[in-house]
Design goal:
48% of the residues lie in helices and 14% in strands. With 153 residues, the protein is an alpha+beta fold.
């Protein structure tokens, strides 16, 4: 038996879960990078100058950042929210005090309105996004929906 007729003793095996995990991490990292770049661009716009830029048009300067976790479809990301010296940094990208992407909140409300129990909603959110949403959060989201329904009627 020569080398060309031997059965393959070493076959390449692809671990799909490892590849999926790697891709998820790449997407999460890209989302995090993009959000942070957008926040920096907003801070530059509010200051009327880029970081460390000397400009006569400058109206404010940076005062560092603070970190905040945000749950997105891509997973939990850490955003660095700029701080400014003279004004409060307000971003159009992330609502102040929001901890989850709006689409996640919408999904939670839709599950509840479809009759899924609060405990099951907690389990599903943990399975999908890696974080367990508390029953209090589900209740608060539902209160907002019911208030909106009352206003519309």
């Amino acid at each position: 038996m020569n080398d060309s007729t031997k059965p393959l003793s070493k076959v390449i095996r692809i671990d799909e879960s490892e590849i999926r995990g790697h891709l998820d991490e790449m997407v999460r990292g890209t989302v995090e990078e993009t959000l942070n770049a957008m926040l920096d661009a907003e801070a530059d716009e509010m200051c009327k100058a880029q970081r460390y830029e000397h400009s006569p048009d400058r109206v404010d300067t940076r005062a560092g950042t603070y970190k905040r976790k945000l749950h997105t479809k891509a997973g939990e990301v850490e955003v660095k929210v700029p701080k400014l010296r003279r004004q409060t940094f307000e971003t159009a990208i992330i609502e102040r005090y929001r901890r989850r992407d709006m689409s996640i909140e919408e999904a939670i409300v839709q599950m509840y309105l479809a009759g899924v129990s609060v405990r099951r909603v907690e389990d599903i959110t943990e399975a999908l996004w890696g974080t367990r949403v508390s029953s209090g959060t589900v209740s608060n989201l539902n209160k907002k929906v019911y208030q909106h329904i009352e206003v519309v009627e």
